[in-house]
Fold this sequence. Notes:
Helices cover 44% and strands 14% of the residues. By secondary structure, the protein is of the alpha+beta class. The relative contact order is 0.23. The model has no long low-confidence stretch (mean pLDDT 95). InterPro entries: Zincin_1, Zincin_1_sf.
Amino acid sequence: xxxxxxxxxxxxxxxxxxxxxxxxxxxxxxxxxxxxxxxxxxxxxxxxxxxxxxxxxxxxxxxxxxxxxxxxxxxxxxxxxxxxxxxxxxxxxxxxxxxxxxxxxxxxxxxxx
Length: 113
């Protein structure tokens, strides 16, 4: 397990989001990305909760933002170096953003995320 300072980890998440193609960032809608520093649900590095863009209809209004949570403790627990943490954060952010766009786990695994 690698120990990463909470502020540094949050910066890694921000940089992973900034590294997404601009077109994707412009399409993301009503979603908040947060970091949980405590251990999250067993086996999860990240979690998307909400209504994917592909399932939203014209009646989608007045709802709380979707939420992407990245679990710092879990990510650090599966990594052996700071470099691995940066890469795992990037992969986890991309995976959860993929869910926001309606991409399922099987397809994300096929894509390497």
